[in-house]
Amino acid sequence: MSVKTLVLMRHGEAGDAPRDHARPLSARGRQQCCGTAAELERRGLAIDRVLSSSAVRAVESAQLVVETLGLPDAIDVREELYLAEPATYAKAVRGCRADIATLLLVAHNPGLSDLASRIQGRHVGLSTAAVAVCELPIADWRELLA
Questions:
Q1: pTM of the predicted protein model
Q2: Going by C-beta distance under 8 Å and a sequence separation of 6 or more, which residues neighbour residue 19?
Q3: Residue 125 — φ and ψ, nearest 5°?
């Protein structure tokens, strides 16, 4: 049986802006994301693709991980992932190509923690810049929560 790895990451701490969608990372949020990237590197996770919410704080979080890990700058930014429900996050993941072994999804709570909880069968609470690494016994992303 094949195994896929889904890394669910909540964006780092955000600063202020007139609109929620435009809130950038705070200095602490940038540090958090660099620390998370270093932890992913220590775990030996080779990320093949990155999906991100279109919110500024999520895109900046994804960019810091990509830069820290030396990944190709190929972040797939999607408007529908902004403050989405777990079903929307799962649908985006299910739309990924089968040849992607490790996928990073950078998004928001409560939907992201809810998705992690459903996948892992226990409560998962993601604080800012935290990750849930989900090893899935599936051959194709279309099988996620099917």
A1: 0.96
A2: none
A3: -110, 120
Phi, psi of 92 (to 5 degrees): -65, -40
Q: Which domains does the chain have, with CATH numbers?
A: 4-143 (3.40.50.1240)
Question: 97 with 74: CB under 8 angstroms?
Answer: no
Q: What is the pLDDT of residues 1-30, one digit of tens each?
A: 589 999 999 999 999 999 999 999 999 999
Q: Do the beta carbons of residue 82 and residue 55 sit within 8 Å?
A: yes
DSSP 42-75: HTT----EEEEESSHHHHHHHHHHHHHHT--S-E
State how far the Cα of 80 lies from the Cα of 77, in Å rounded to an integer.
Answer: 9
Q: What is the mean pLDDT of the chain?
A: 96
Distances (CA, A) of 43 to 22, 37, 53, 69, 90: 32, 10, 24, 12, 24
